[in-house]
Amino acid sequence: MAENKYYVTCYKEDVAPENMPKNISLIHADPTSFSKLKNIMDDVKYSNVFIIMEDIEDVKYSLKNIRLIDDKVRVVLVNQWDDEEIGRDEENVTILNSDELLAAHLYDNLPNVPVVAQNVGLGRGEIMEIHIPFGSAYAYRHVGSILQRKWKIAALYRDEKQIIPTNATMIRPNDTLLVLGKPIVLDGVYKTINKRIGLFPEPFGKDLYLLLDFRYDQENALLYLKESIYLLEKLEEKSLYVRVLYPNNFALIEEIKALESEHVTLSICYDDNAIKTLIEYDIHQYDIGLVLNSIQTFEADELKETLYDLKKLVYLFGDNLLYNIKECVILMSENEKMESISTTAFDISESLSLKLTLGDFDPEGDFESKKMIIEHYETLTHIFNMEINIEQKVVNPIREIANMKDILQIAPFEKQLNTDNLMKLISTKVQDFLLTTKRHPKLLVPFALAEG
Questions:
Q1: In DSSP terms, which residues pair with 94 in a beta bridge?
Q2: Predicted TM-score (pTM) of this structure
Q3: DSSP of 1-55, one letter per residue?
Q4: How far is CA 371 from the centre of its chain?
């Protein structure tokens, strides 16, 4: 820093560059000489001493002299030899191994290796720089839709500019994230970011979680479980955790237990007073990415609010069974919502080998305003190497989707999902009808609202 004062002691003359800054003074002396070094250190109070020398014996003598003169001053010693004993047990001595520094710098430039801050904070990898590759599960996602537990996206770099992200900031391919958190957590984040898309339900989490509330789900419990197992078998290396709430039918529980396997685990909750805490614990403990439940269970005991806060994917069972689904359908809505759910829509369509349709159904025929969203989805077709069917019709979107068959509806998971049937009389918004009909199964994708 310009306000610091530096003194450089060296054997030889003519080692300093021309036009040396005024805050650097050059002293010609032998630092292995105790008397000469003492004269130098008596003249000025030094906060730090750096030892960078070519001869190992000179290093040993210089360090010994410094310690005799001032045993409290901080010393930074560059070790260029295999002798690890130099200054190793000395107080206030930091050893920099030149080979390790070179190797670390080379390592940071290898492909598929995270860059960690080594001289900032604790220097243990709690600050990391992560590049977003094409095909990343984090590409085209809003920052606010990502659950940042024990870590945080502090900044984003794009086109050589720094962006301080808000919830509504979208992460794009070739962006670089500056993230903070526990090193072991950041290591997992790095691996998730660099995984290819196609590992649904990641990056929201790895495994599946089926909630069966026996107050509402007894009649369809086995059917819901079999649908969940069907989905599990379509995905790669996932597990299904089944949690039964309000158990009051032990014969049914025995039937469910019969379907347990290496990748299907059943747990039963007998305490009705701590259900919310238990669900939150399960989701974190098992790294849950997708929660499956009925609409009635979803609306009970503030589960909807809990899952929204946890930013998890939610699958709502419908009258049409998952086995029979042939197509995923997205109804056009606001631009940022459509961008937020796009990669997940492609991901599940690819995982289940389903056709994907983007429905631009507008009673007013206003298709021009949706042009940018259509371009966004067409861009993703190249990344996923998939086709998308884009339909534009001057129709009521609610009636149009009601007439469709064998579809999975994909929609943003918003905080306010109206459940009052009276809303259907006055609303034309798609989200006001999501929870009022069971005909089509639905996948709700976490969506981040813009910050005001």
A1: 76
A2: 0.68
A3: -TTS-EEEEESSSS-SPTT--TTEEEEE--TT-HHHHHHHHHHS--SEEEE--S-
A4: 29
- ∠ at Cα 206 (201, 212), nearest 5°? 80
**Residue 203 is encoded by which pair of tokens?**
């990056």
Q: Which residue has the tokens 């509806």?
A: 409
Q: Is 135 exposed, middle or buried (0-12, 13-18, 19+ CB in 10 A)?
A: middle
For residue 120, pLDDT over 80 is answered with: no
Read off the pLDDT of residues 240-255 as tens digits, 9 standing for 90 and up: 999 999 998 999 999 9
Beta strand 74-79 with 93-97: parallel, antiparallel or unpaired? parallel
Supply the DSSP string of 262-324, one letter for each residue.
TTEEEEE---TTSHHHHHHHHHHHTTEEEEEE-HHHHHSTTHHHHHHHHT-EEEE--SS-GGG
Amino acid (one-letter) located at 101: L
Look up residue 188 and give its two tokens. Answer: 């997992």
Phi/psi of residue 401, nearest 5 degrees:
-75, -30
Contact status, residue 181 vs residue 152, Cβ threshold 8 Å:
yes
Can you tell me whether residue 369 is helix, strand or coil? Answer: helix
Picking from 285, 303, 286, the residue whose alpha carbon sits closest to that of residue 295 is 303
Q: Which residues of 170-196 are buried (b: 16+ CB within 10 A; e: fewer)?
A: bbeeebebbbbbeeebbeebbebbbbe
